[in-house]
Design brief:
41% of the residues lie in helices and 16% in strands. The protein is α/β, with parallel strands linked by helices. The radius of gyration is 20 Å and the shape is globular. Bound molecules: NADPH dihydro-nicotinamide-adenine-dinucleotide phosphate.
Length: 300
Amino acid sequence: MNTVLLKGKPVSENIYNNLINRINSLKSVGITPQLAAILIGDDPASQVYVRNKSRAFEKLNCKSQVFKLGVESSESAILDLINNLNSDDNIHGILVQLPLPKHLNSKTILHSVSPNKDVDGFHPSNLGLLLEGNPFFIPCTPQGVIEILKYYNIEVSGMHAVIVGRSNIVGKPMFALLAQKFEIGNATVTICHTGTKDLEAYTIQADIIIAAAGVPEMIKGNMIKKGVNIVDVGINRLDDNSEKGYKIVGDVDTDSVMGIAKSVTPVPGGVGPMTITMLLKNTVKSAEKFRQLTIARLNN
Ligand code: NDP
């Protein structure tokens, strides 16, 4: 079987092209979609992620402001900043870059972001709406996975999808999306985690595998059935002898699934580019909602 590589770039370019008109329409009434990214501490990977997000916003003539806070920042200082951003009409999306330094309570901080500006889709109100089947902001990475499945016409309805990983930012919202009666959804979904006794017994049955465990190359060719479609969400560093001293690999051992799987997303270059694209899409959506509310207020 000739395994197809499902690249993220054409999918994200297609979405960017659709967003340009929406952004121009907002700009014509004086609204520029703007993200506030809060970066706490000096984790190098987080710095790269935030820089890449800012670049993507600038490329499409949107704005992004980065608020850098020291690693020792107090919870109350962060909550004050978020409160100010919540009430700033020029800010349409607020992102708190994870992971946070250990002394901070992620839940308290993420819950303080207004659900109306929660473009990461991590607020319980947005996760609740997603579970209900009526989402507004959908977490970016799972939303990006759905866009890949849609773009490459991968049949989802009626299929058995196996998700490896149950985090709040990937696995659980992925389950909520694939199990819903949505256009790309309506699958029978199994969700696996470290408590799963025999992972392979599930992956071998899957028509679709979403690998999001954060374990380098854990899904091997002998764990899958012929013709499965695989989306590899994992981004892991593996030390090697290259100049950089490491390479980036996914949760799937890509070489070993080639020839067995029908398709697989590459790492890097698969799901990675989609997460930022979805962040931009959510921020544009938020700015459009702001425009509607402003018009409604003026008409009253
Ligand atoms: P977390 O560490 O929060 O969650 C990992 C999940 O995988 C947990 O539910 C854990 O189970 C499960 N798991 C871990 N090891 C195993 C195992 N051996 N067998 C079965 N299940 C296992 O990770 P995230 O969800 O945040 O991220 C997952 C991966 O996706 C990472 O590599 C991350 O870098 C990447 N990622 C990529 C993004 C992108 O833009 N492409 C965005 C976000 C994440 P348990 O709950 O029992 O601990």
